[in-house]
């Protein structure tokens, strides 16, 4: 089943189950996918949709510390659930060791020797790991390996 179809099925199921958090999360992802399709006048493939879902999950992860600072436990719990729901649509995440190997190979491929080559490393790694790891983690591992 295509990812778009799965999202639609999950939306229907969440409406039947009256699961508002899941319904709202799936609706926001579907809206983000539709926005990208309309803006670029293309039909997104499953790989492109995974990229959109990863971006939506990252947005929520980035906001989480702000919610924790404000002490809004009700919103924190809902946001964590949204992240969990989104992660369910993404491929299994890479471990730090697996990601380290990919970054090492990328450093060797591009001949990186200093922090100035970070852009080349990131450009090499990100398409390979689309939706399976966070760019911040890649950046941290690359910095560690270059130093």
Keywords summarizing the entry:
Arc Repressor Mutant, subunit A, 2 domains, GatB_Yqey_C_2, mainly alpha, 75% helix, 147 residues, 0% strand, globular, Hypothetical Protein Yqey, Chain: A, domain1
Q: How many separate structural domains?
A: 2
- Beta-strand percent range: under 5%
Q: How would you classify the helix and strand content by structural class?
A: mainly alpha
CATH architecture of the largest domain: Orthogonal Bundle
Uncertain parts: none
Coarse shape: globular
Largest sheet: none
- What is the averaged pLDDT score? 92
Supply Rg: 18 Å
Helix content: over 70%
> Number of DSSP helices?
7
CATH fold-level label of the largest domain = Hypothetical Protein Yqey, Chain: A, domain1
Q: What order do the helices and strands follow?
A: HHHHHHH
Count of strand segments: 0
Looking at how many chains there are and whether they match, the oligomeric state comes to: single chain
Under CATH at level 1, the class of the largest domain stands as Mainly Alpha
The CATH superfamily of the largest domain is known as: Uncharacterised protein YqeY/AIM41, N-terminal domain
Separation of termini? 44 Å
Protein name: GatB/YqeY domain-containing protein
InterPro entries: Asn/Gln_tRNA_amidoTrase-B-like, GatB_Yqey_C_2, YqeY/Aim41, YqeY/Aim41_N
Organism: Qingrenia yutianensis
GO molecular function: carbon-nitrogen ligase activity, with glutamine as amido-N-donor
């Amino acid at each position: 089943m295509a990812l778009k179809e799965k999202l639609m099925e999950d939306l229907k199921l969440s409406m039947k189950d009256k699961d508002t958090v899941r319904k709202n999360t799936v609706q926001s992802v579907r809206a983000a996918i539709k926005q990208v399709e309309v803006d670029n006048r293309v039909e997104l493939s499953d790989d492109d949709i995974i990229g959109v879902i990863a971006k939506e999950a990252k947005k929520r992860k980035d906001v989480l510390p702000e919610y924790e600072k404000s002490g809004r436990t009700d919103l924190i719990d809902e946001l964590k659930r949204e992240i969990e729901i989104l992660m369910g649509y993404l491929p299994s995440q890479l471990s730090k060791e697996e990601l380290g190997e990919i970054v090492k190979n990328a450093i060797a491929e591009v001949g990186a020797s200093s922090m100035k080559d970070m852009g080349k490393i990131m450009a090499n790694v990100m398409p390979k790991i689309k939706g399976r790891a966070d760019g911040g983690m890649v950046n941290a591992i690359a910095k560690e390996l270059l130093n």
